[in-house]
Amino acid sequence: MSSSPADASSLGRTPLARRSVLGAMAAAAAAPGLLALASPASAAPDRALELPGGGDLGPNVIVFDPSASGIQAKLDEIFAQQETAQFGTGRYQLLFKPGTYSGLNAQLGFYTSIAGLGLSPDDTSINGDVTVDAGWFNGNATQNFWRSAENLALTPVNGTNRWAVAQAAPFRRMHVRGGLNLSPDGYGWASGGYIADSRIDGSVGPYSQQQWYTRDSSVGGWLNAVWNMVFSGVEGAPAQSFPSPPYTTLDTTPVSREKPFLYLDGSDYKVFLPELRTNARGTTWGSGTPRGTSVPLTQFYVAQPGATAATLNAALAQGLHLLLTPGIYHLDQPIQVNSANSVVLGLGYATLIPDNGVSALTVADVDGVRLAGFLIDAGTVNSSTLLEVGPTGASADHSANPTTVQDVFVRIGGAGAGKATTSMVINSRDTIVDHTWVWRADHGDGVGWDTNRADYGIVVNGDNVLATGLFVEHFNKYDVQWNGEGGRTIFFQNEKAYDAPNQAAIQNGDIKGYAAYKVADSVVTHEAWGLGSYCYFNVDPTIVQHNGFAVPNTPGVKFHDVMVISLGGQGQYEHVINETGSPTSGTDTVPSTVTSYP
């Protein structure tokens, strides 16, 4: 995989002179009003001298102005490049300055993020659509990964915006002045998805979507459900009714803090850090300016692809936050976040690759770290852990100011050979993991039972950790292993590893298979809502998985609305959770459910 983003000239853009984002941001581009932020001539060198804050956002951050011409053409060029580039190296962030844009259809391909630059979504209005469809994959949306939309108001041309996505495709801080269709044209298969801090004035139509999680939002209606639809803190959500229809509805979200985002204050870029909310319900922006703090870009080291881990660590040690501009970053040592309240924010699916078996990023046992908006790709040399939040034995109380991990995605294989024993380890107490997809690849390059070996997806050792929107798939052993006390999960989606060669390969002592979600036998308090595990053992369809969920039998461990399903009879589950729940039903793709356990 290349260590540099796609060349700007491939998009037909005349490069602009290098300039500071803190000064005159109004330099004219080839198309009037269309800004393309130029990168430095070379990546920042490793050095003992003090590193500068602020700086250019690089060639793959495209900033649009309402007065621009040629916006649709630029959007179409980027989409043509990214539509089918599932494991490509291109990374793009599309930013729209506040104002009104008309007649646009921004189709989003892989590794493309679109966002408004106002404090509120309503500051940036598009009379048009932000579209994800599945024409590239014959109407099948189950591989529409790694793209996002944030902080925009849309007035769809035909009244309904189409957002037919699968995993790792968040829809945050969006205002849809109409309806939202989550299925592809033709109602083909779809496997998503996540909405947060958004308002949809009309109805949301999931149609063929297998599962979905919506948090702290407002909807005008919700039309249907397939297997697992979960809501927390959503005004207008359907009433609790699992399993028929399979709606799991919590009135509020226990603790939440929205993702940091880039915005313009006059001509200056800043990053807004939303405040912590408890028992949250509805959007953060509906009644005006959101609550939180702003940090000027001068307090961020603006990293370009090619920056080394040593440079990134020097910036952090100097007291700067990190803004990772779109591209691929190869690391020979972990990025080490050691200071409280540090922010590491990625744009356009900035991707970290540890090259020599190290971790990609580690966090000290400190308050208030915010990790958001980047992808970690396992390297060819096995890493014991890719992301570690808090060191082993972390014990400090962070309840007043937790670390948040938001839209941080992990991939083992697919883009090439990769290995990691454990993808993500959460040791710090009170951490909030808000929307992640941790994926051992089942297709692409470098894929095989031992080729992209990865035993564990997420291991939680810290107490009082909350996961909202947990997608973890295909690991060789436990997808989630939860050892900490007081853990809570709202929404979990899982597929067991397709490529298990035979029953013996997944045998867990005298138990058939490793559970998708395992709570340690020593745990006495844990609660979870709206969980699903699917099997599709296509290499050996005779494989039997004892259960999807394994937990201690104690009154303080409570599971609500749990399901397992065999996709087309390719393998079977004997139970849903522990010894409870009916086996899956032959070749019929019908869920086996447990409403409450114990």
Question: How would you describe what is shown here?
Answer:
With 598 residues, the chain is mostly beta strands. Helices cover 4% and strands 39% of the residues. The protein is built from two helices and 45 strands. The strands form seven sheets. Strands 24, 25, 26, 28, 30, 32, 34, 36, 38, 40, 43 and 45 form a twelve-stranded mixed sheet that branches. A ten-stranded mixed sheet has the order 1-2-3-5-7-10-13-15-17-18, with helices on one face. Helix 2 (309-317) links the parallel strand 24 (300-303) and strand 25 (321-324). The protein is globular and about 65 Å long. 58% of the residues are buried. Mean pLDDT is 92; it is low at 1-47.
Please specify the SSE layout and strand pairing.
Layout: E1 34-36, E2 61-64, H1 71-82, E3 92-96, E4 99-107, E5 112-116, E6 124-131, E7 147-150, E8 153-154, E9 160-162, E10 171-172, E11 175-176, E12 179-181, E13 194-196, E14 199-205, E15 211-215, E16 218-222, E17 228-232, E18 247-250, E19 253-257, E20 261-265, E21 268-274, E22 276-280, E23 292-296, E24 300-303, H2 309-317, E25 321-324, E26 328-331, E27 335-337, E28 343-354, E29 361-363, E30 370-377, E31 383-389, E32 404-412, E33 420-426, E34 432-440, E35 456-460, E36 466-473, E37 480-482, E38 487-495, E39 517-519, E40 526-535, E41 544-545, E42 549-550, E43 557-566, E44 572-573, E45 592-597
